[in-house]
Amino acid sequence: MELLKGEDFEDLFHAFERSAFHLELKDSYDTPEERGPFGLFLEGRLDEYAWHRSWLNLIREVTQQGKQIQRARLVTVPHVDYTRWGLEVARLNIEAGEDIRYLPRHLARGIDFPADDFWLFDDDRLVFTVFEPGGRFIGGVDVRYPVLVEQCRRVRDEVWAIAIPRGKYVHSEHTSR
Known about the structure:
Elements: E1 2-4, H1 7-10, H2 12-15, E2 19-24, H3 32-43, H4 53-64, E3 68-75, H5 81-96, E4 99-104, E5 118-121, E6 125-131, E7 137-143, H6 146-162, E8 164-165, H7 166-169
Parallel strand pairs: 2-3, 3-4
Antiparallel strand pairs: 1-7, 2-5, 4-8, 5-6, 6-7
Domain DUF6879: 7-170
Protein name: DUF6879 family protein
């Protein structure tokens, strides 16, 4: 296993050839770079999303090359504030080319989830995301164990088959609870 940080982690998004899939398992993330924007959301104030532009630019760059970026979020219903904020921010990611879907936790019974969030690149490169206890993103652990890669492939396929695209999800019974 190898820890990829900074540019080494970012290079993953330039190196993949066809698809990148991200699974988010937590209901909230307390990353320092999101604290200010999340606070604006909680206060009902306008956000210019300057903090998010580099990711949106990367998504545009990659998807304009014909590559696919997918993200599935496992969420608890009723939603915590962070999930409500994520639903708002996700529209920008989608406009940039990312496909984001939501799966209510109660609909995910029987899926053999790994312990941590992960990225799966081109079906064969597995990278678990790593956070410090204080919430700061450290990087990704590049995992080369075929059994784990296969498990995450299965999880991706199971989740993606039943997860709800954001556009439909925001108008579903799951957001009105």
